[in-house]
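Regression check, adenosine-5'-diphosphate case 490:
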Amino acid sequence: MNDTLNLKPGQVKGDTGIWEMVIGLEIHAQISSKSKLFSGASASFGSDANSSVSLVDAAMPGMLPVINKFCVEQAVKTGLALNAQINNTSVFDRKNYFYADLPQGYQISQFTKPIVGEGEIVIDLDDGNQTTIGIERLHLEQDAGKSLHDQHPTKSFIDLNRTGVALMEIVSKPDIRSPQEAGAYVKKIRSILRYIGACDGNMEEGSLRADCNVSVRKQGDAFGTRCEIKNLNSIRFIIQAIQSEAERQVDIIEAGGKIKQETRLFDTSTGETRSMRSKEDAHDYRYFPDPDLLPLEFSDSWVKEIKGTLPELPDTLKKRLVNDYGITDYDASILVEEKDFVDFYLEAANGVDGKLTANWMITELFGALKKENIMFLNSPVTPQKLGELIALISKGVISGKIAKDVFSDMMVTKKSPSEIVKEKGLEQVSDDKAIMKLIDKVISENQDKVKDYLGGKDKLLGFFVGQVMKLSQGKANPGLVNKLLKESLK
Ligand code: ADP
Ligand code: MG
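Current build output:
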């Protein structure tokens, strides 16, 4: 059992030794577009069933798909952000299958000639290390509709609102080696998508979901047979599902069995995966170029134009934060993870100590929001008010300790720190005379300790500082108290 504790992430201990996980992810990202990929119907989430369905989406005979330029632009933008090859010519194929929520009888997707080819991204791991994960390709495709099985005792209903909504499928190479790396990979992709605005990355609403391909092998061996876990919509589930799937595969192989390539579902109540269907091979889908659509072609200059609109991406931004604001790599990686975090930080740190701002934001603000269960965007403390608090600390108007009380007050009252400091009279006392008065009082009341201190018990200085601070109700400038005490006790 003890050995299990020493396993590295991504390792599974079996009876025959240690196994290694091999993982590849297919991420489906819904493009933040007002209309669908090939029709003008609204792509918004949450409208009444079947209220955003055009004749194209309903697959009425004779209807023709028309490509949405905005969606193509987002795919190119994403490709550029993933450091990937942009293919100026790509082809839409029909992927044929029958499903009740797919009225066309096929999905328009891209198969052999996707819009984006190979690329790579750097991911940040919890231990502060980084690693590079290859991107196999990114293609454009339509989403399917939704079957509703819980609305009627004997019938299933179909909602076609989602039919035809634009998705980007981002396929990784099998470069991922642990559930934690898979989580970090999804976080990084989500963060990039949010920076460039191509997808809102909202996993609860299903705008971003992942299929996880998992196999196991002994280190150095060839890749094993993979199983695909479909449609995971949270990073926590991705981590749990991969771990339990890898353990399931090790058990089977060690018992003398073979892994069947199949599609599995993750059961969130048991934390285990179960079989859904055997995996189709590409030839089962009878892919062929969609005769209703010409190959998608665009010029280098258009790609260049799009490149010019890319914002500063998390990796470069992180370097800039470390260099210009003097914060640690680790703090910077936390701040750039979400665009909302970094926007907040840049505004708060404007003109004040960047390092102190990062500390306060990551420790105090994040901590308080978590404790109160408040979403970051609803923070009662605004960037401007946090910056103001930092300035008060740096200028010595309040001590760090008092600042914590002020901060708690800001969380509740939404008041500005200066207002709170003024109302409660919390300004730090940095006046020699006022502090000397307190020191004299403490010294005269503790003559025996003064004797001990002068007799060599240096440690007692802390006691005196504590007493003076207490007398001042925490408001005395601690540095000054220290200095004046030392002088007085000579
Ligand atoms: P499919 O359409 O069959 O799902 P894709 O090419 O879209 O195929 O995706 C295959 C995914 O499986 C990729 O992310 C790839 O990295 C991953 N993969 C391929 N081989 C293995 C393997 N042996 N173990 C784990 N993942 C794998
Ligand atoms: Mg696939």
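Comparison notes: The two ends are 61 Å apart (CA to CA). The chain has three domains: 11-305, 314-424, 432-488. No diff flagged against the previous build.
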